[in-house]
Design goal:
Radius of gyration: 25 Å
Order of helices and strands: EHEHEHEHHEHHEHHEEHHHHEHHEEHH
Distance between the termini: 38 Å
Strand order of the largest sheet: 3-2-1-4-5-6
Number of strands: 11
Number of helices: 17
Length: about 400
Amino acid sequence: MSLPLEGIRVADFSHVMAGPFATHLLRLLGAEIIKIETPGRGDAMRNYGADRRYDGMAPAFIAVNAGKKSVVLDLKQPLAQEAARRLIATSDVLIENFRPGVMAKFGLDYASVRTLRPELIYCSISGYGQNGPRRDWPAIDNIVQATTGMMTLGGAAGDAPAKVGFPVVDTLTGQTAAFAILAALLRRQRERRGEYIDVAMFDASMAFMTSAIVPYLVTGNPPERTGNIGYSGQPTSAVFNTSDGRQISLGVVQQPQFEALAREVGRKQWLEDPRFLTPDLRRKHSAEMRAELDQVFGEAPASQWETRLSAAGIPCGMIRDVAEAVSLPALEARRLKLDLKVPGLPEREQVEIVNAGFLFSEDQPGVTSPPPRHGQHSDEVFRSLEFSADEIKALHVER
């Protein structure tokens, strides 16, 4: 088995979510991740959530730290800074998500360490970037959802702003960082030079929101809040109730799809109705079209519509909660779940995490070892960096 990033070492000075998710993706592709944690309780994500039984190995921590190595360093101490420099000298990638300027206080900023490893790929993640008027502003996921306008895009007109129900900004920022790191590694292979990457949560979110932002930039018309109606604005791309009280999401946006839908549900008259002949006419007569669809979908349960319409090439999906979604057989077929044994967890040690979200033709992404205990690999890494026994003991004291 061979994964694309085998042999790549990453010095991971990040914590909580965006940075660790970036290095999680790199780990799934085979990179070695050395996670630098603070003394005491380490990464705050270790104790995230309300169930104290999971402290040290919280589910959110498990999600993005499997297979990494944990080293504890008090970066305020000179010997720990020397350990960090030795690690960086042996690394291909460094990633950090302190506030701008913090790594410089430790003598570990890009300008200070690039001589240790001229081909180093150095990635900094922050709320608003390493320069600009908001450089020093603190930011977390929900703050950036607010400042980018993301919270005003969901729901219907008149609804209060609402955040996305999971840390989407952290996740997409981590994915953006991983993408940038891979691009820099590819260029390094060609040109044998390092790179400094500046990833801002705000910037990554704005790029992620391209489909909402660019139409405004082009037309000057702000995006409308359309509730559960799709991006096309078509009444045939919306949510509908079915006979069993469940709901389906229909995604009919193209004319051939509408024609197929009319035939499949036995409403060929729609194809001759002057109100419904074109997408523009269906938008104009949206209420009438919705009324027709409400009647049709009230005739059968959601699961039946999902299977029947999908088989006919008509985009349709039953609305599920997360528990239902992760139980779908498709996750097994697509290798989306990875089995892990995490010793010491309450109730059960055998758990699952989510894989990278894509498949190769062979040698699939993945990880088999659990997240590390706090400082689990400190001695192993210190020895590999040629610290003496006395120095290793001193590094432990500094913790």
